[in-house]
Every structure is written in structure tokens, then in C-alpha cells.
Amino acid sequence: MILVTGSAGHLGEALMRVLRGQGLAAWGLDIKPSAYTDHVGSIADRDTVRAAMHGITAVLHTATLHKPHVVTHSAQDFVDTNVSGTLALLEEAVAQGVSAFVFTSTTSVFGGALTPAPGQPAAWIDETVTPIPKNIYGATKLGAEALCEMVARRDKLNVIILRTSRFFPEDDDKAATRSRFSRDNIQLLELLYRRGDVADMASAHLRALEAAPSLGFGRYIVSATSPFTPGDLAELHRDAQAVVTRLYPDAANLFAARGWQFLPTIDRVYDNRRARNDLGWAPVHDFKHGLQCLRVGRDFRSALARAIGARGYHDEVFAEGPYPVD
Q1: Residue 179 included in any domain
Q2: Could you tell me which residues are beta bridge partners of residue 75?
């Protein structure tokens, strides 16, 4: 039996759909009820975690407070859920004797490392980059990563940490981005350097679950495979469109036919090579795939992403954007 925390969210539901579609026994835990939630409760409550862990052989821990909650939730809320909740799950997993524990972290832990100084090339982000969290979300996810590593070393729990890039379907939180780019336009562009499809995110988690017993511990960036190389970084930060149209000569016509625009600059590139090599992960939904879909008039998102749709982060609807930002 596989425990999926956060089963009412984008990734949690994706994992539940895939696991049950494969005929595997999966148990969903979330603070919100849903069609894929078997146990309603908070991971910050130890009794809830202990009850949910009964009979579990592996854990996919996706439950979290996200960046969109920074303005609506306190710092203590983030510590309770992202740090204490993760510790409870890790300790109860050890007590249960589970074979593998996969923790969904985020590229937001890199924080300040993602923004190059003026005049500098775009940042190449791989697992060797030192995180510099810049908000409570990134700080608590990094803290939870540290707990994962500690428990893996101390208690010999097989743990894989996946630092996921953005995969949410909602509009961008920045008003300037929303005013310039349609949702499809910007989300396709982000597949070049900072986004992944939820179907590929789900497959990365399942590959991590399989690889965990042989790896023991690992930390990986998971994002769509970028076409860029370190040699592109200076030009990407200066004239991103020139790089993209050189690599994909027909992209300009495909974009023009839809009234779409290119990004003038790209500030970072996520490198997923280690995840592909160590986990045997093969993401499908990259920018090249997206252009192929544009050529034939098909949605570039996976069938799984379309089936799940938007989940949102708050019960409240905000006037400016999908969620408030500070």
C-alpha cells in the first residue's frame, strides 16, 4: 500500500490517478476531502499521520503549504505543515518499516541563487548550486529536506528528494506577465527552462519510488528537459528570443499565427540530467513537444494535466491574480 499525502492537490491527485490506473493500492491523505482522499486530516497532527501510516509500504509525500500561501498563512503555519508534518511522516515511516519515502520539494529553495547579477549570464541550476531561500516557503522546504537527509542517514530510511519546478495550471502571479502573455503562451515558454507537466512530475515520483531502495538517498531537480546548454547562458540573459529561434526556426511563425510573444530574457535554466540518469526518468512534455502540438493544433498539456485541471490554492477568489503576493 502506497500513502500519497496531499491527495487533493495537483500532484497528489495525479499520483493517485496513475497508481490506481495501474491497479496499485494507494491511500490518499489530505486536509481537504476529494475523490482521491481516503483519510481527511492534517500531516501536522501526529495521531492522523500514525493512523494513515498503518499498513503502508511506501510514501509519496506531496502535501505542503505553497508559495501562494505566504500572504494568507503565518510563518508558524508553514513550520507546522512543511517541517513538523514532514518529521511526523518520516518518523512514522521508520516505525512502520516502509521501503521508500519520496519527498516533493521545490526549486524555490534556490531562492536568491536563481537571479543573476546585472550583466551576468543566466544561472545554470543543478544539484551543486547552494540554496538561498528568500521566503518562508523555501526556508521550510529546505528545512524539511534536511530532516529527510538526517532520517535517511540515521535510520536507514530510503529517501529521495525531488525539487520540482512549477507545474501548476493557474495564471502567473505577476500582473506584468499576465498582461503581456496569455496563459498558454507563457507556460509553453516556461517549458524551456522552469516548468514541467504534471504527468512528467508524477512519473518522476514513481521512478524515484522504484529507485529509492538501491540509491538509499538522493536529491534531484525535476523539470522539463531544457534544450539550452551552459554556452547559451550569456545570450539567454541578453536576447532569449534569438537563442530560441535559432534552435527552433519555425517557432516564430507558430507564435505569430497565435499572436504570441517570446521572452526577452531568461534568468535561469534548470538542469534535470541527474534525475534522468540516476532515476531512469524520461520526461516527455518539453518545448519541442509543445511546438509539435502547435503545428497540429493540439493542446501541449498531457491528458492527465487536462483531466485534473486547476485546483487553486485558496477558497477565496482574489481580485488581482490567482493569489495574493507580498
Answers
A1: yes
A2: none
> Alpha-carbon Rg of the chain, whole angstroms?
19
| Predicted confidence (pLDDT) per residue in 89-138, tens digit | 999 999 999 999 999 999 999 999 999 988 899 999 999 999 999 999 99
- Number of domains composing the chain: 1
Range of the domain at 114: 2-308
Per-residue 3-state assignment (H helix, E strand, C coil) for 11-62 = HHHHHHHHHHHCCCCEEEEECCCCCCCCEECCCCCHHHHHHHHCCCCEEEEC
Distance of alpha carbon 251 from alpha carbon 16, whole angstroms: 35
Give yes or no for a contact between 269 and 124, defined as CB atoms under 8 angstroms apart.
yes
Residue 233 phi/psi, 5-degree rounding, is -60, -40
For residue range 18-75, list pLDDT tens digits in order: 999 999 999 999 999 999 999 999 999 999 999 999 999 999 999 998 777 567 768 9
Q: With 0.85 as the threshold, say if the pTM is over it.
A: yes
77 inside domain: yes
Q: Give the dihedral of Cα atoms 68, 326, 269, 116; nearest 10 deg.
A: -160
- In whole angstroms, what is the distance from residue 65 CA to residue 81 CA? 7
d(CA 38, CA 16): 11
In a domain? residue 318: no
d(CA 196, CA 220): 14
3-state secondary structure of 2: strand
CATH number for the domain spanning 118: value is 3.40.50.720
Report the mean per-residue pLDDT for the chain: 93
Q: Three-state DSSP class for 126?
A: coil
323 is a domain residue: no
Residues 209, 223: Cα–Cα separation, whole Å: 17
